[in-house]
């Protein structure tokens, strides 16, 4: 089976969509009977983004995939029409739920792309049951049109390895409004502990104390291992990969109640109101007090999410379409 996969996120971002794609590629490459073709266009600059959104995704990627059996689009952006069967992965519908949290270009093109994808794709993948529900509520997509295939945890995220020193809690996320990082930092102050913030620069004028920038995965794993807990009070997620990464490294997790974060935590985290700084601070204190219990629950929870399992489910879906 010949399958083309859009790998453009690998040049666009180091955030969740790129991690999702790398994990799937690692699980799928080299499988017998599966010929994977990586399709991409342009660079990381603004010109590359504009050309991808206006030319590559609507038309160019279909030409590149014309001799294939399946075209997998992992960022909800699909061609206007294509010869192979088209699968679209939807990570979330934040661009419709919280359009004000996005830069104007991404807001405009993302809304159009998402609506087109759910209308024209032969199959839709959601990374969580929450995102499947959101597709139904926001866009009227029937649940039986959406296959839920979750993310996994990269092998580097494990309890084995060095731990960063210091008395701190960790926040992980791009500097953008949805990640709610300012409240995370303020909650740490109320709880009497420093907050280290790891993530790429983003948009929306977000700047927080304790920001250390992006780090390589081995350094991030060490930060998870050394943290008193991960504080992840995001306002909206379609999944929440840092929750599982922290759990796999033996760090307790404090995250938002409701939505995908609660679903992914699966009873193995302290749940808080992300709009209430005092509640987040109380969650940090609770996580530290319940560390042993939460670490064990978290390790068990993270073990349920593997890229191999995700790859198996995705390959099965592809084969259903050909």
Question: What does this entry look like structurally?
Answer:
The chain has 322 residues and is an alpha/beta fold. It has 13 helices and twelve strands. The protein has a six-stranded parallel sheet with strand order 2-1-3-4-5-6, sandwiched between helices. Helix 7 crosses helix 11 and helix 9 crosses helix 12 (291-303). The longest helix is centred in the first third of the chain and has 19 residues, at 46-64. The chain is globular and about 60 Å long. The chain starts with a strand and ends with a helix. The model has no long low-confidence stretch (mean pLDDT 94).
Structural descriptors:
322 residues, alpha/beta, six-stranded parallel β-sheet, three-stranded parallel β-sheet, 13 helices, 12 strands, globular
Task: Give the overall shape, derived from the CA principal axes.
Answer: globular
Q: Output the strand order for the largest sheet.
A: 2-1-3-4-5-6
- The amount of helix comes to 40-55%
Mean pLDDT: 94
Share in β-strands: 15-25%
Instruction: Indicate the low-confidence ranges by residue numbers.
Output: none
Biggest beta-sheet profile: 6 strands, parallel
Number of distinct beta strands: 12
Query: Would you list the SSEs in sequence order as H and E?
Result: EHHEHEEHHEHEEHEEHEHEHEHHH
User: N-to-C terminal Cα separation, in Å?
Assistant: 8 Å
User: Rg, please?
Assistant: 19 Å
| Class computed from helices, strands and strand pairing | alpha/beta
- Tell me the number of helical segments per DSSP (H or I, 4 or more residues long): 13
């Amino acid at each position: 089976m010949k399958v083309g996969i859009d790998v453009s996120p690998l040049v666009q971002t180091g955030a969740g969509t790129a991690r999702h794609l790398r994990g799937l590629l690692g699980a799928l490459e080299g499988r017998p009977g599966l010929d994977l073709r990586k399709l991409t266009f342009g660079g990381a600059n603004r010109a590359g983004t504009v050309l991808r959104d206006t030319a590559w995704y609507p038309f160019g990627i279909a030409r590149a995939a014309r001799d294939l059996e399946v075209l997998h689009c992992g960022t909800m952006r699909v061609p206007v029409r294509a010869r192979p069967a088209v699968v679209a992965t939807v990570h979330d519908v934040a661009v419709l739920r919280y359009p004000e949290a996005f830069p104007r270009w991404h807001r405009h093109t993302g809304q159009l792309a998402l609506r087109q994808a759910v209308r024209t794709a032969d199959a839709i993948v959601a990374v969580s049951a929450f995102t499947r529900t959101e597709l139904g509520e926001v866009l009227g997509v029937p649940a039986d049109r959406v296959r839920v295939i979750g993310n996994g945890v990269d092998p580097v995220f494990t309890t084995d390895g060095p731990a960063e020193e210091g008395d701190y809690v960790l926040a992980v996320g791009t500097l953008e409004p949805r990640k709610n990082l300012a409240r995370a930092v303020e909650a740490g102050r109320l709880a009497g502990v420093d907050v280290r913030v790891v993530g790429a620069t983003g948009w929306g004028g977000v700047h927080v104390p304790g920001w250390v920038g992006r780090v390589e995965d081995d350094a991030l794993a060490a930060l998870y291992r050394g943290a008193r807990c991960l504080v992840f009070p995001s306002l909206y997620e379609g999944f929440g990969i840092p929750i599982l990464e922290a759990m796999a490294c033996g760090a307790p997790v404090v995250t938002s109640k409701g939505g995908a974060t609660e679903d992914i935590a699966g009873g193995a985290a302290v749940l808080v109101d992300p709009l209430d700084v005092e509640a987040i601070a109380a969650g940090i204190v609770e996580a530290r007090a319940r560390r042993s219990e939460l670490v064990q629950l978290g390790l068990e929870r993270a073990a349920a999410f593997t890229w191999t399992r995700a790859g198996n489910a995705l390959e099965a879906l592809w084969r259903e379409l050909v």
